[in-house]
Specification:
By secondary structure, the protein is an alpha+beta fold. It is 23% helix and 32% strand. The chain has 5 helices and 6 strands, in the order H-E-E-H-H-H-H-E-E-E-E. The longest helix is centred in the first third of the chain and has 11 residues. This is Acyl dehydratase.
Length: 167
């Protein structure tokens, strides 16, 4: 009897039952939808890890004396590290688009304020345009990061290529 139960369980298994949210199509997305990432407080360890990976050894990122001598209140977190907090995978966006995702095709950003160890970042991406192109479509999002003081520290855009229903 246990063998029969196991085979029934195996027959009823569907990986789609394990999706975090129901996957949607390109056509189901709406301009204005916002996907937020959890807040993160940066530490010196985060900066040291990024410095190791990026090989960026400029003293503005690790030397407190040098940073203050050059007008910074403390060592500055690497800009590309801050940008990485806009990664769509940190939000629900990849789960929402499911299998229609083809590629992350473009990004740009502006660094508006410096970020230091101890700052808490609040990233979000918001759909600003949906451009169908036959079998594919372009989703453009505005990427923003605010700090714990509500100050906008980064803004930019991302573009993603998705399959459409015509595909």
């Amino acid at each position: 009897m246990q063998t029969t139960n196991q085979s029934n369980a195996e027959k009823s298994f569907d990986p789609n039952d394990f999706l975090i949210v129901p996957a949607r199509s390109f056509e189901d997305l709406q301009v204005g939808e916002i996907f937020r990432a959890p807040s993160r407080t940066l530490t010196d360890a985060h900066s040291a890890a990024f410095q190791t990976v990026s090989c960026d050894n400029h003293p503005v990122h690790y030397d407190n004396v040098w940073a203050q001598k050059h007008g910074h209140k403390a060592p500055v977190v690497h800009g590309l590290q801050v940008l990485a907090f806009t990664a769509p995978g940190a939000t629900m966006f990849p789960h929402v688009i499911g299998e229609v995702f083809i590629a992350f095709t473009e990004l740009n950003c502006k660094f508006l304020k410096e970020v230091n160890s101890g700052d808490t970042l609040y990233p979000a991406i918001r759909i600003i345009s949906l451009t169908p192109q036959g079998a594919t479509g372009i989703v453009e999002t505005e990427a923003t990061i605010h700090n714990q003081n509500g100050e906008l520290v980064l803004t930019g855009t991302h573009k993603y290529l998705l399959k459409t229903a015509a595909n």
